[in-house]
Design a protein that fits this description.
Blueprint: H1 2-24, E1 28-30, H2 37-43, H3 48-54, E2 68-70, H4 73-76, E3 90-91, E4 94-107, E5 132-134, E6 145-148, E7 152-158, E8 167-171, H5 175-181, E9 184-191
Parallel strand pairs: 4-8, 5-7
Antiparallel strand pairs: 1-2, 3-4, 4-9, 5-8, 6-7, 6-9
Pfam families: 3D, LysM
InterPro entries: 3D_dom, LysM, LysM_dom_sf, Resuscitation_pf_RpfB, RlpA-like_sf
GO molecular function: hydrolase activity, hydrolyzing O-glycosyl compounds
């Protein structure tokens, strides 16, 4: 009889321990390639600050692919989204890869010192309606499709002596259009 009570007590202890231990297991998220820290926080309805503090991380740069993040307690009681599909931004059937703010000016095929041919070999005089921009290829590789605010979808098809860093030149038909464009900050979206 004593052995039965002892066996029952031990079984009860094991079952309750397993039950409560499973409830105490913290929810986690393994960081995937290309995931942004703020996107992960949004995914779980929490803040970047909360995730940093909970994981004892001082710098977001420490959180790289494969890092296992502990999630806040309130996540344990919610269904953790396994693979919440993030809506991808698209423009004209192209996926937006990156958004930048750049300084933009305009040029024509007939500007002083221009040959009318681009660094990628396009003859602008024979293609006056082409949507093309000059870029710093270290920032945007030649051949890349890009949406430019106030201009539309264009190809990065040229370079220029003064086009360095976050600067672009948009190709336009006439000097008058180029002068009207001026020099301004615009948003661009790199596409794929």
């Amino acid at each position: 009889m004593f052995q039965n009570k002892l066996l029952f007590s031990f079984a009860f202890f094991m079952v309750t321990t397993l039950f409560f231990a499973s409830g105490a297991i913290a929810a986690t998220h393994t960081v995937k390639k290309g995931e942004e820290f703020d996107e992960i926080a949004d995914l779980y309805d929490t803040s970047v600050y909360t995730l940093l503090e909970l994981n004892e991380v001082e710098d977001i740069e420490e959180v790289t692919e494969g890092f296992v993040l502990k999630l806040p307690d309130h996540i344990q009681n919610k269904k953790v989204p396994a693979e919440k599909e993030k809506k991808k931004e698209t423009i004209e059937d192209y996926e937006v890869v990156k958004t930048l703010t750049v300084e933009a000016s305009a040029f024509t095929a007939y500007c002083k010192g221009c040959s009318g041919k681009t660094a990628s070999g396009i003859d602008l005089k024979k293609n006056p309606d082409i949507k093309l921009i000059a870029v710093d290829p270290k920032v945007i590789p030649l051949g890349t499709k890009v949406w430019v605010e106030g201009y539309g979808v264009a190809v990065a098809g040229d370079t220029g002596g003064s086009i360095k860093g976050n600067r672009i030149d948009v190709f336009v038909k006439t000097k008058k259009v180029a002068l009207n464009w001026g020099r301004k900050n615009v948003e661009i979206k790199v596409l794929k």
